[in-house]
Description:
By secondary structure, the chain is mostly beta strands. It contains two helices and ten strands. Pfam families: SH3_Tf2-1.
Amino acid sequence: MRTAYSRQKSYADGHRCELEFEVGDHVFLKVVPMKGVMRFGRKGKMSPRYIRPFEILERVGTLVYRVALPPHLSTVHNIFHVSTLRKYMSNPSHVLSHEPLKLAPDLTYEERPVGILQRQERILRNRVNSMIKVKWANHTEQEATWETEADLRNLYPELFGK
């Protein structure tokens, strides 16, 4: 019995890490994915395990912390056990640069193609589709999409010139 206890304790001690946070630290909050439930814009396996960094307001107990939550999470209790928190290491590359958008009064904006990056012929069973990789305004080249040439000619004839 004693050897079994010793073995189990050594396994548990090897996997345990003592976490401790200070007031003002930023932490990620662990969320549990549920099958078929939409969480933070994604469903199922692709839903995030940890969500955005939150600031620690105070230490409530030895392993419990109060976290500053935004207003849209006001229905969630703001005290969490240390096992549901992960340390956030700030990195200057995490800061995203953005250009302000021209929004309509109903808070929408129009997507316009800026240029054609690549052309490709996709052969299906008995027809050939001309595909074009399009760079959109307000997006990077990595966010370019493949569109059919016929659709783009109908919607944006100015993109192809004369």
